[in-house]
């Protein structure tokens, strides 16, 4: 059905003249007025096509503008990604592509008392250079006050390992002292159920070497507060499953172990690789 005849608009540059398709007859001008009103109506403008409308050169511009917008959007996202990952560095609050989804499970290699096996596992977490890096943009060094940077997670692991060593070493020394006192004050038949003390050669060797520095109060005090602030800074918001279990005395407890729960983590090994690439020294180890 053709559009109704409407009064001619006031003298002005019509839509068709703006499109370089000017027509001077009254019929075309009335049609132009109709389509202007159609474009202003939100319901009419949703129609997929206009059968009586003459073609305009503007229709060729729209796809070009849309294509340019897509290209600019893609380039912007790449620039933002580069900003957050300079030389592949997963900076704080970096790009989501650096996140991984994993499930935590208990690992005795990190939970057992100090030994050659467990300390090797802990040391494997630290890159060559121990997390000390020099980078032209992120961690410059000029031979003066600027001496590069230290990547926080490796400092945190160093502190946690120090606390771990102090706890196990202190417990070991207490058992050793108790065993020595019992051996002096009583016979083995006085405490038949007491487990025999077993010497840990690895801990003994570390006490004779440089392992004793983990027991120094100022180092432990620093690490306790440092780890506290690191945990608060990261503010891990993963949700853990709540479970019910019985303790060794048969008491039912409800809590969260953390094992078996899905969680989203940042790319630790990517940061490990980056830190090793830009290391400022060749040393290794976690102590």
TrEMBL record:
Pathway note: Mycotoxin biosynthesis
Q: Which GO terms describe its biological process?
A: mycotoxin biosynthetic process
Which intervals of the chain are annotated as region Disordered?
A: 1-50
**Biased composition, class Polar residues, residue ranges:** 8-17
For this UniProt entry, which segments traverse the membrane?
59-80
Q: Which UniProt keywords apply?
A: Membrane, Oxidoreductase, Transmembrane, Transmembrane helix
Basic and acidic residues: compositionally biased ranges: 18-29
Q: Does the keyword RNA-binding apply?
A: no
GO MF assignments: oxidoreductase activity
Family note = Belongs to the ustYa family.
Q: What is this protein called?
A: Uncharacterized protein
- Which organism is this entry from? Ophiobolus disseminans
| Taxonomic placement | Eukaryota, Fungi, Dikarya, Ascomycota, Pezizomycotina
